[in-house]
Amino acid sequence: MMLGLFLAREGIDVVVLEKHADFLRDFLDDTVHPSTLDVLDELGLQDKLSRLPHRDVSRVQVSFVDGTYPIADFNRLPLAHPYIRFMPQWHFLNVLAEAAEELPTFRLLRRHEVTDVLRHGDAVVGVVADSPGGPVHVRAGLMVAADGRGSVIQRRTRLAVRRFAAPMDVLWFRVGREAADGEGLDMHVGTGRLVLAIDRGDYWQVAYVVHKGTDGVLRAGDVDELRRSMTELVPALGRRMSEIRGWDDVKILTVQLDRLDRWHAPGVLCIGDAAHAMSPVGGVGINLAVQDAVAAARILTRRLRIGPLDTITLVAVQRRRRLPTVATQLGQRAAHRLLVEPALRTNEPVPAPAAVKLLARLPVVQRLIARMVGVGLRPEHVAPMIQ
């Protein structure tokens, strides 16, 4: 959506295919970071986004059996937006869609699910989509795969994927919020469990982290076990677990961590999770995808002004975004080893690791972590429009 908006602003014809009729679904990546908020400023959309329900969080902390420790502090960063914004992703997507649909060269086709690609020789020249009226062929000079992990276009073009181990999956559910709860972001580490609670105003969106592949075992038992576990770890929220009536109220996010060796093929460019599926650690997925889109728009527009796209242009997009992708995934893999794996494999209450306790005494490092998570190694900015 972001890439389509940028290209349409430059007068380039764009069609975005969305398989659903709307965006009203729970996503895990509901964290909008300072780098993305800067892009929205540059697009003139920040005021509109700020009027929608959200929470701005300047400090991230994690609770262990022996106390609560700060791990990232945005407050003292010299940024226009020194915080992470938590908001349902459907609000973010609706703001982008409304802005893009005001442009004459943009079309959003809802209820169009891409199922295959169209080829001419070795090159992809279009896609096949299921629509309410039957199969539809959409042809274009470039197909951008922004269809996330398990991308149809990625699979059909047989691009090689490099996969990394992820120790966990995430159960995803909501419970009511009360005024006395406080606000923001709460992370709790307990006996073989890790819970993240995101404040959504009138309810908490809860991510309950479990060992990779154990969702089926848990669902074979009674949901009372989940209620009991939440009550032990987060008593305030556990008292509201009666709102979870059964396993149908609990979704599963299968965590993947991977990236393509090559993000492109003739007629195709992959960005976002289609190019590099991220762990939920740090909530960086949506923000890296936005940064991919900003960089791709700038590079593609420059080439399209002088002629047809070529492989060199697609290579330039990957080269521009490779460093922040690799560095972020290295950081996530380190977090898996140092925090997630130890928390999930123990049967004893978990005290804070020595590294976390040291971090709590080093505000300058907390600010550095905040900058790496919120801004990243290579923040992208909107290029001035060509008149």
List keywords for this structure.
single chain; 12 helices; 387 residues; alpha+beta; 35% helix; 20 strands; three-stranded antiparallel sheet
Oligomer: single chain
Mean of all residue-level pLDDT scores? 91
Overall morphology: globular
Q: Any idea what the radius of gyration is?
A: 21 Å
Write a short abstract of this structure.
The protein is of the alpha+beta class.
Task: Describe the SSE topology.
Blueprint: H1 2-9, E1 14-18, E2 31-32, H2 34-43, H3 46-50, E3 55-57, E4 59-64, E5 67-73, E6 84-86, H4 89-101, E7 106-110, E8 113-120, E9 123-131, E10 134-139, E11 143-145, H5 152-156, E12 161-163, E13 168-176, E14 185-190, E15 193-199, E16 203-211, H6 215-220, H7 224-233, H8 235-238, E17 251-253, E18 258-260, E19 264-265, E20 268-270, H9 285-304, H10 311-345, H11 354-360, H12 363-374
Parallel strand pairs: 1-7, 4-14, 11-20
Antiparallel strand pairs: 2-6, 3-6, 4-5, 8-9, 9-10, 12-18, 13-16, 13-17, 14-15, 15-16, 19-20
Could you describe the 3D structure shown?
The chain is α+β, with helices and mostly antiparallel strands and about 375 residues long. About 35% of the residues lie in helices and about 25% in strands. It has helices at about 1-10, 35-45, 45-50, 90-100, 150-155, 215-220, 225-235, 235-240, 285-305, 310-345, 355-360, 365-375; strands at about 15-20, 30, 55, 60-65, 65-75, 85, 105-110, 115-120, 125-130, 135-140, 145, 160-165, 170-175, 185-190, 195-200, 205-210, 250-255, 260, 265, 270. The chain has a 7-stranded mixed beta sheet with strand order 5-4-14-15-16-13-17, with helices on both faces. Strand 9 and strand 10 form a beta hairpin. The model has no long low-confidence stretch (mean pLDDT about 90).
